[in-house]
Recover the amino acids of this structure.
């Protein structure tokens, strides 16, 4: 009897230690990435990085101000093109998702979320860039939006479904028309969750490189408006990293660090938003 | 009731209550029967012994009251169950009083002793017959939920009142002509009075049975006949 | 029929007290047919797809009285009440036929707007459902605001409604707190206040106390008693004692049919139908 007990204790301790070790192993890549990028990139972070354009090869100094502007511009466009259709599709699925058409919509969204980002890039290249006969931030934004779309749709749908039907009933019972009840009660209740989902989707596309290869392309100078090709942090990291210049390598690390921080900030604020909402209950 | 309660424990509680009422009724009827037997035989020993039985009746009254209150508190009865419970509560009061009146009769019998006047005509047994019959039938009506029978009991009260009314005119001449029978006659008057009040209580019981049964217009409520 | 003795007279049923608040001596003469009906259904049938859940209900709801609807699960009582404010048809595949008169107007007539009906016939649900994204104050005003109305003095409206549901003193200092931060009983009263803010004529309550503890239930029942002076109330309840406590009239439903509808005191002391008797004494099933 006592043997069995002792044996169980040993097994318990063993399995628990194994879990801890496994977790640590899983954390190693994350921690090492954070550490390494920070160590290599911190040196390149200075005011010039955020304010100056890249200098021609050979000259030292310069920065990636245009890339930062480009990434922000692309993210903005992605949101404008991706969020409204995504949220509306999510609303449609939440309301009518059990119909035949609704099932097809959901299926398509699921399939789309698995499409490789470079495929999306080529698709937008053919659709937009070839028609316009030039690269543009607009095309880049569209590509990123297409990548965001499935995630936003499914998140919106799931979160709307989580809102209890009793709230809709309460609104209807107050003599509120159906559409208003959906919009101002159901959507409003799910809004914080949807915002979180959107933020996470944005964080994901902010760092995408492949779709930008054939759409936004790159630009050594400022890009004005949305119709010109634009530099972006991911593209610059790629271009600078494969170049032979030490100076550019340093800047690539710095860009990587900035991108990392941007994505981290988005993720962390998404978490904080959720926690605040939960506390309010 | 031909349908049973879904809660069998509740059904059991109601049954147990009914049985105790019947038991109390049986005791009361026995007390009356013994009292009248003691009277007819002028059996003082029997009379004194019968008085002892009253404590059982009083005890039963307390038990039934307690059980009924418990059911009211725990079961919140409605409709026919409610009428049954409230009827029971009031009924046992009357039964207990009937028991006491039986004891009164026994006490008068004990006072009479072996005394017996030579007058052959004794008006008391006639009153006793009807009164005892009323008690018996009222209890039967309660058990069977028989409003017709209960109404018949109520009608018979007039007869008892009439017989009692004749008692004094009948005994008065005797008392005036023979002072020796005054003691006996007053005792007889007292017994007659007890019987008359006893019959009133039986009438009360019958009235409550009518309420219990006819408070509803439900068809197929069991072996009861209506109107 | 009483004996000559004046000792123990039983009280006659007719001398029993009527429900409090009414003229006691005349309550006995009131019956289902003598009161003014605020709403009346005529041959109301309701369906979920092919299944018929209400089989021809003809019932009058007395004005400014509380009518309780009781019956076993699945008897159609919730469905019936939802037909009274056209909430039944919100469920996909659900429909209703027949006449439902509000005052003299049939709310099921072709050109009647269901949304407008629900302004006049309000509803409170089983589980309290204040809007979680809104404060207590905003919840009370929600019915008005969601319909695009702006009251001239919203604070007065909020205070008046919360006073009416006896919640003002408890929440007057925390009006900005989320509606969901209150206890269950308070939430339910808040929902009632929210419905009352639209000044309905009829208030439907679908098992409003089944999610509440006994004290909260007692508060809501007391509130119903107060509200009866100004509103017509229909309450669905599976708790018969509650129906006995709060309602003036009770309707018993079984398997989609109306079995009996009468004054509550009649239903609970001498019902006319055997099925009613069996149900309320617990002889069902």
């Amino acid at each position: 009897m006592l043997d069995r007990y002792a044996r169980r204790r040993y097994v318990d301790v063993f399995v628990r230690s194994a879990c801890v070790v496994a977790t640590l192993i899983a954390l190693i890549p994350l921690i090492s990435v954070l550490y390494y990028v920070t160590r290599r990139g911190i040196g390149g972070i200075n005011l010039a990085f955020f304010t100056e354009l890249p200098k021609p090869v050979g000259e030292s100094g310069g920065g990636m101000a245009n890339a930062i502007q480009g990434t922000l511009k692309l993210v903005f466009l992605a949101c404008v093109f991706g969020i409204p259709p995504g949220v509306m599709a999510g609303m449609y699925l939440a309301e009518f998702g059990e119909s035949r058409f609704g099932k097809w919509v959901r299926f398509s969204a699921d399939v789309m979320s698995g499409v490789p980002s470079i495929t999306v890039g080529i698709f937008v290249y053919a659709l937009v860039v070839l028609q316009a006969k030039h690269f543009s931030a607009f095309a880049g934004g569209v590509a990123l939006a297409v990548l965001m779309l499935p995630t936003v749709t499914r998140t919106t749908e799931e979160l709307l479904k989580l809102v209890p039907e009793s709230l809709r009933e309460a609104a209807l019972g107050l003599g509120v028309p159906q559409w208003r009840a959906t919009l101002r009660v159901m959507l409003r209740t799910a809004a914080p969750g949807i915002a979180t989902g959107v933020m996470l989707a944005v964080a994901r596309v902010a760092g995408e490189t492949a779709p930008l290869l054939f759409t936004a392309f790159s630009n050594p100078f400022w890009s004005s408006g949305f119709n010109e090709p634009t530099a972006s942090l991911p593209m610059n990291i790629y271009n600078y990293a494969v170049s032979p210049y030490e100076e550019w390598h340093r800047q690539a690390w710095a860009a990587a660090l900035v991108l990392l921080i941007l994505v981290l900030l988005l993720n962390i604020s998404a978490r904080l938003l959720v926690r605040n909402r939960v506390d309010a209950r | 009731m031909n349908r049973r309660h879904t809660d069998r424990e509740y059904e059991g509680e109601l049954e147990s209550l009914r049985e105790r009422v019947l038991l109390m009724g049986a005791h009361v009827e026995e007390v009356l029967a013994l009292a009248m037997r003691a009277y007819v035989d002028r059996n003082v020993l029997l009379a004194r012994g019968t008085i002892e039985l009253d404590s059982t009746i009083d005890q039963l009254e307390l038990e039934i009251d307690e059980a009924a209150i418990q059911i009211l508190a725990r079961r919140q009865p409605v409709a026919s169950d409610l009428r049954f419970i409230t009827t029971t509560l009031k009924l046992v009061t009357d039964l207990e009083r009937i028991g006491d009146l039986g004891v009164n009769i026994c006490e008068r019998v004990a006072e009479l002793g072996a005394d017996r006047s030579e007058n052959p005509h004794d008006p008391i047994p006639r009153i006793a017959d009807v009164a005892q019959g009323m008690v018996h039938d009222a209890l039967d009506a309660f058990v069977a939920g028989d409003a017709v029978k209960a109404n018949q009991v109520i009608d018979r009260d007039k007869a008892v009142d009439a017989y009692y009314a004749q008692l004094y005119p009948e005994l008065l001449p005797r008392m005036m002509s023979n002072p020796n029978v005054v003691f006996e006659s007053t005792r007889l008057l007292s017994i007659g009075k007890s019987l008359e009040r006893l019959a009133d209580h039986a009438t009360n019981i019958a009235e409550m049975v009518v309420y219990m049964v006819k408070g509803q217009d439900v068809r197929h409520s069991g072996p009861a006949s209506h109107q | 029929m009483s004996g000559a003795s004046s000792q123990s007279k039983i009280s006659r049923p007719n001398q029993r007290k009527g429900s409090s608040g009414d003229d006691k001596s005349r309550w006995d003469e009131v019956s289902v047919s003598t009161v003014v009906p605020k709403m009346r259904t005529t041959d109301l049938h309701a369906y979920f797809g092919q299944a018929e859940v209400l089989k021809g209900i003809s019932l009058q709801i007395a004005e400014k009285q509380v009518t309780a609807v009781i019956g076993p699960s699945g008897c159609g009582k919730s469905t019936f009440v939802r037909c009274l404010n056209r909430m039944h048809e919100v469920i996909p595949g659900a429909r209703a036929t027949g006449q439902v008169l509000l005052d003299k107007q049939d709310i099921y007539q072709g050109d009647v707007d269901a949304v407008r009906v629900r302004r006049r016939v309000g509803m409170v649900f089983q589980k309290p459902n204040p809007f979680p994204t809104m404060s207590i104050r905003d919840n009370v005003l929600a019915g008005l605001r969601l319909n695009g109305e702006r009251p001239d003095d919203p604070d007065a409206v909020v205070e008046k409604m919360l006073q009416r549901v006896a919640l003002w003193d408890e929440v007057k200092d925390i009006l900005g707190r989320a509606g969901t931060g209150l206890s269950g009983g308070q939430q339910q009263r808040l929902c009632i206040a929210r419905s009352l803010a639209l000044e309905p004529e009829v208030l439907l309550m679908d098992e409003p106390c089944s999610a509440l503890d006994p004290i909260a239930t007692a508060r809501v029942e007391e509130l119903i008693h107060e509200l009866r002076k100004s509103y017509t109330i229909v309450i669905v309840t599976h708790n018969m004692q509650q129906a006995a406590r709060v309602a003036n009239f009770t309707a018993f439903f079984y398997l989609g049919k109306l079995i009996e509808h009468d004054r509550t005191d009649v239903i609970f002391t001498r019902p006319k139908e055997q099925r009613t008797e069996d149900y309320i004494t617990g002889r069902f099933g």
Summary: Residues 203 and 262 of chain A are 8 Å apart (CA to CA). Chains A and B do not touch (no CB pair under 8 Å). Chain A has a mean pLDDT of 88. Chain A has two domains: 2-44, 47-280.
